[in-house]
Amino acid sequence: MTTKKEIIKEKDFLAILQTILETYEEIAATRMARIRSSVLDSRDFLLEINAIFQQVKSSYNNQIVILMKKKKLKDPTKLTFIKRNGKTLYVFVSANTGLYGDIIRKTYDVFINSIKKEPGDVAIIGKLGLEMFKADRTSAPVSYFDCPDNRIDSEILKKIVEHIIQYERVLVFYEQFNTVISQSPIITSISGDPLPWEKRENPPVKYFFEPSLQKIMEFFEKEIFGSIFQQTIFESELAKFAARMVSLDFASENTKNRLKQVILAAARIKHQESNKRQLEKFASMRLWK
């Protein structure tokens, strides 16, 4: 049977925990609100930019091959103006800390299943992702980057882009915000290669390139590449803040319910103690008669 001392101790602990959970929930909500509009506004724009990148890379295959031959490359099928290694890179954007519900795990599951189907190199952002990957003991070359959960560090972001831009094909696995109570794993190709479900049957779009096709492709493969990747980091940050807010709200409600039970248990013990004192009082009165 739970003692009065244990009940009081648990009641005090739950009251403190409730305060902490509500504080962290408010912080997560504030951070989510701060970046939500900018991330969602940028999403559609950069999706269109990425689509144009894919169209330019595919529609003007013949023109690019001619330029490659002029540069005297041995492999004219590589549609790039940046020296690449011909490999595929899987990038997993995770987190350093917990309290994000199950969204990190769901994203990781999509990520690891893709690697098992088609092996490639791995880049992981965040300690949780690295721990999950090590636990799986998957034999794939891995690079790790430690990036803060609550802000975007431009220097770290620059190092990541410098690393991933050398790959021929780059797939980023991250968390996407749908609504405050719904976040989902998503895959984005940021190297100008459409994913299987993104391939369109529409006729190719023709473009006029100014000042030249080479300059445009260089711009896409350097500047746009980095911008699209940065958007995936912002998307992940927004989704994680929302997931944390929901997770903390759930924990807060559970704590409230448990606190109510403990308060009732404390009241029950107090009532039992009162009854006991009354019985002892009546018992002593009988002795004096």
Secondary structure: elements and pairs:
Elements: H1 4-59, H2 61-70, E1 88-93, H3 103-117, E2 121-125, H4 127-136, E3 142-145, H5 154-164, E4 169-179, E5 182-189, H6 213-288
Parallel strand pairs: 1-2, 1-4, 2-3
Antiparallel strand pairs: 4-5
Looking at this protein, list some descriptive labels.
single chain, 289 residues, alpha/beta, Pyruvate Kinase, Chain: A, domain 1, five-stranded mixed beta sheet
Describe the structure.
This protein is α/β, with parallel strands linked by helices. The protein has one domain (42-248): ATP synthase, F1 complex, gamma subunit (Pyruvate Kinase, Chain: A, domain 1, 3-Layer(aba) Sandwich). Helix content is 62%, strand content 12%. Strands 3-2-1-4-5 form a five-stranded mixed beta sheet, with helices on both faces. α1 runs antiparallel to α6 and α3 (103-117) crosses α4 (127-136). The two termini are 36 Å apart.
What's the quick description here?
With 289 residues, this protein is α/β, with parallel strands linked by helices.
